[in-house]
Amino acid sequence: MSRPTRPSRFWETLAVVIVKPLSWLLIKKDWRKGERIPRTGGVIIAANHLSWTDPVLLSHFLYNNGRWPVILAKSVLFKVPLLGHAIRSLRAIPVERGSNEAARSLHESSARLKDGAAIFFYPEGTCTRDPDLWPMVGKTGAARLALESGAPVIPVAHWGAQELLPYGDKRLRLFPRKTFRVMVGPPVDLSSYAGKPPEAEVLRAATHDIMMAITAQLAELRGQKAPEAPYDPAGR
């Protein structure tokens, strides 16, 4: 059965009326290569994660570039009164972390992709713990979804949200006004994995390619050379 790829007009209008004015007020924007985001069809948007604010700021960016972002959110948020109803109405997908139910979010994402949705993925699974804020080693969910669905993966890097609200902090740093920079890369070439069984080695290699594509865009945004190997919190 086909699922709507956008929320109802009421919820979409409510989100836009709240988010866009706040976004324009809080930050300056340096948005690049938004035309690389396909305007139609199922697509996976894979981004780095720096701050609790960047899901909202990136959603604004994606919306302005013609896509409604379907966000994968922690399942616990869906249980919060009012907030849970709101994010469910905005078409977010719950993720059960650390349980046998985690695969359900990928099944739901796959179904949404078939209906033409833009799935907004953080392959790292959480805000980076890299001391210099480069992307970490990614988890394999985005790669698995891409290889099983055939949907293109668009790497998106951003910089600046961590200045507005550093990870772990609860106080917005409003002044001076921060600049939120975004760079969109070309689709990640995963053709070498086509037809291969989704075994661990294949998924890790495809995930590495996705994370390197995001990192390359971030290096350009920052004007710095990225580390040769991504930070691995499990093996640091």
TrEMBL record:
Pfam families in the record, alphabetically? Answer: Acyltransferase
The UniProt keywords, alphabetically, are: Acyltransferase, Transferase
Enumerate the InterPro entries for this protein: Plipid/glycerol_acylTrfase
According to the record, the segments passing through the membrane are none
- Domain Phospholipid/glycerol acyltransferase per the UniProt entry, residue ranges: 43-161
Q: Which domain of life is it from?
A: Bacteria
One Gene Ontology MF term: acyltransferase activity
Q: Give the matching PANTHER family.
A: 1-ACYL-SN-GLYCEROL-3-PHOSPHATE ACYLTRANSFERASE (PTHR10434), POSSIBLE ACYLTRANSFERASE (PTHR10434:SF55)
Q: What is this protein called?
A: Lysophospholipid acyltransferase family protein
Starting at the broadest rank, the lineage of the source organism is: Bacteria, Bacillati, Actinomycetota, Actinomycetes, Streptosporangiales
